[in-house]
Amino acid sequence: MTVGAETQITDLTIEDHACLTYGEPEELLDLTAAFVRDGLAAGQQVVWLAEEPQRRLAELGRRGIVAREAAAAGRMIIMTCQEGLLEGQAFAVDRAMHWFRDRLARSAGEGYPALRVALDMSWALQPVSGIEQLPAFEEEMAATLAGTNAAVLCQYDRARFDPVTLASISGYHTRSVAAATYHHDPLLRICRQYAPPGIRLAGHLDRSAESALGLALSEAIRLEGDISVNMAELSFIDLYCARMIIDAARSLSSTRKAVLHCGPSISSRFLLLGASDVPGTRLVITDG
User: Fold this and answer.
1) 277 and 198 in one domain?
2) 92 vs 2, 95, 249, CA distance in Å?
């Protein structure tokens, strides 16, 4: 059975003040890409406050999101937190909320039906004054969103933020979001990938995880369109599990494709088993 998040990223709606807790950079980028994709598809304006905006644009593009085109048209804005929430190395609730309310008004004035905002909260891990106001900020954001045409996704790294901080802000969010997970232990994580649709594998994968891998693949196959198997963070896969993935790709109809992303050491297993000869299957070797 799937061990899912309280809410799937694709379920978020207007007025949601959601808290995304992630454990890996790929998880953050995948779930944010889905949040952005769905907003753009609905004609909404999307804003993402994050570190290294140009790199984030490239990452969205790698996931099939037309982010650069949307940014050029003003439909998407990516900026640093210093440009929005902070003033230098200082944080104040009043200033941050003034920025958000101004952005909300400008979006409505430009004719957008709604606004989606993703906030990478990693800035709160830096030496910033006023950080003690973080719970007050989340409380004020929750109150401000009521009755608006906006949704906000606050992004917290659960490995870097301490449990006390996460507990202090969790009650101000209407929804808790994480990737639907099929298997998670210190050695292996198998979870759903949202953009592009498929599954994501990280760690050490062998036959002991056969059941979880089988469930993840079967659910991915039931989705429409092509599927992606993201193994960029996989350090080991045995031949049995590699065959399972190839068999899943082989089972797709002729109108669908399977794209297998992996590093050189993992790709050698798939090449040995003839994955490149399976119709509709593409092996993409990532840097590693």
Assistant:
1) yes
2) 40, 6, 51
Give the C-alpha separation, 149 to 14, whole Å: 6
CATH number of the domain enclosing 227: 3.30.750.24
Domain span at residue 244 reads 181-285
Task: Check: CB of residue 201 under 8 Å from CB of residue 192.
Answer: no
Is pLDDT of 3 > 90? no
| Residues comprising the chain, all counted | 288
Q: What is the pLDDT of residues 122-177, one digit of tens each?
A: 999 999 999 999 999 999 999 999 999 999 999 999 999 999 999 999 999 999 99
Specify the pLDDT at position 5. 47
User: What type of residue sits at position 116?
Assistant: R
∠ CA 177-179-185, nearest 5°, is: 120
93 & 138 share domain: yes
